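Re: the 340-residue chain
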Amino acid sequence: MAEPLFKTKKNTFPFLLGVNYWPADSAIHMWSRWNPETLEKDILRMKKLGMNCFRPFLMMPDFTDETGAVIPLMVERFKHFLSLCDVHEISCMPSFIVGHMSGENWDVPWRQGKNFIRDPEVYKITENYICTIVRECQSYSSVCAWLLSNELPNYAEETDAKAVAIWAEKIIGAIKKTDPHRPVSIGDGAWSPEIIGEETAYQLRKLNLYQDFAGLHYYPRGTSPWHHTFTTAFRLAMAKPWGKPVIVEEFGTSTTLCSEENQAAYYRSVFFSALINDAGGALSWCLNDFNFSDERPYSHHPFEEHFGIIRKDTSLKPAAREFPAFARVLSDLAPYQKIS
């Protein structure tokens, strides 16, 4: 059998099960409104729900100053966060270029309106930022993969597929020189013409030459049960032929838009569909509901406050109970080898 792609010093993960993560008390301001006690409580909640992995985000405006230099205090906070993950033995895949988050772009002053992909000075700062974090944090056993971005096509609206491929080759190569042992992916959502049928510069056939796995992001619109049921299988079927492992890196639905019971049913459908269609894992958006209706981005995207599986009062939505149920299925299947 092939060795699992995702592993730490203590564990291997044939299937990643978890969430995308922001804490309820600070949301996207996790690093500037620092509260490590809340973070540890959330890690313990994730573990109790049977999760083995989650995806945290490094807000780029928090981690770099106006010149693009990495802010040491934020690196220390990230190290402390990873130490909590190590202690409680849960893995994570951090995302660096954020960038874009919850329907809004959060730009950095050092970009100065320049092309994020093609400008050499912007590239130099970006590479230094990412490689500094990787160099400082590669000793933490909980990191099972590095993600370059969160939905980079939303932030770097590039139209030249060759330029994107060259950028990916360079920056992934730089990460691999610093940490040759962990897999790296772009975090672009696999919003590729090979999958979504629309022309974009983020082409899976090119990017898979450099990234170690592809991560699908999708949020089906409309009310068709067929669309919601089969999107997972369809996107996996379109992504897998391009030669790299695939995970469902982001999926979910807001209980602003559906009932809590239907949210749970959708989670169950995605989990089983991901497993039987050979995904390497499924991470939902997201752990917590939020209560920041007077702050961006929630003031203009109010439905973003209700994607969580934990309510504002910390009680569990029905979708939360799908995690331990599915974790038991994974445990029952663990003694068996997968056949193709």
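The mean pLDDT is 95.
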